[in-house]
Structures are given as C-alpha cells and as structure tokens.
C-alpha cells in the first residue's frame, strides 16, 4: 500500500519524496479536486496526505469523502509556518484528549 501527498509547496513535496512518498503540488481548488478524485480511483493508495492549506481550500469535499469512506486514510499535516506549529500541536492535543496545554 502506498502513500501519496497533495501539497501546496515544493519544500513539503521534496521532503516527502526523500522519505519515499510520491506527490503533487496543487494551487487551485480545481487542481486539488482533480488530483483527489484520481487518488480515490487507485486501490493501491492507502494513505492520502494533505497540507492544512490544501484542506482549507477544498475542505467540504475532502471532509465528505473522509467521513463517508473507510479507504483511503486521509491525514492532514501542518504547513511549514513555524509560528503556527506550536499552536497546531496544542490544538491537536486538546482535540484528541481534551487537555489544554
């Protein structure tokens, strides 16, 4: 089973490729939905990784698929903005286990 990335920036794509994960860069909602639709047709793609910015651009469509389908696993990774990273981790912990740090 493979993982695949839909990213909004080149640096994230390069980092994932170094880890052996293929992907694509998308800048518009139309590009995102086109790539996302292609991925849903491939049974060998088990995990779809998207950046927060990609999710924000097509959240309604992505969340609909995430809630209605068991396969593939859709996971969101934070953007590369270091100022938001700390907030992201705290928010994630609070949402996951209900503890505010």
TrEMBL record:
The keyword Repeat does not apply. Pfam families: ATP-synt_F. Belongs to the V-ATPase F subunit family. InterPro entries: ATPase_V1-cplx_f_g_su, ATPase_V1_fsu_sf. It comes from the Bacteria. The keyword Ion transport applies. This is V/A-type H+-transporting ATPase subunit F. The lineage of its organism: Bacteria, Bacillati, Bacillota, Clostridia, Peptostreptococcales. One of its GO terms (molecular function) is proton-transporting ATPase activity, rotational mechanism. Keywords: Ion transport, Transport.
């Amino acid at each position: 089973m493979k993982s695949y990335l839909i990213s909004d920036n080149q640096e994230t794509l390069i980092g994932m490729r170094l880890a052996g994960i293929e992907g694509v860069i998308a800048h518009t909602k139309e590009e995102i939905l086109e790539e996302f639709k292609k991925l849903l047709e491939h049974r060998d793609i088990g995990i779809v990784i998207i950046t927060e910015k990609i999710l924000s651009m097509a959240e309604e469509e992505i969340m609909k698929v995430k809630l209605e389908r068991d396969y593939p696993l859709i996971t969101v990774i934070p953007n590369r903005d270091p100022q938001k990273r700390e907030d992201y981790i705290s928010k994630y912990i609070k949402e996951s286990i209900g503890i505010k740090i």
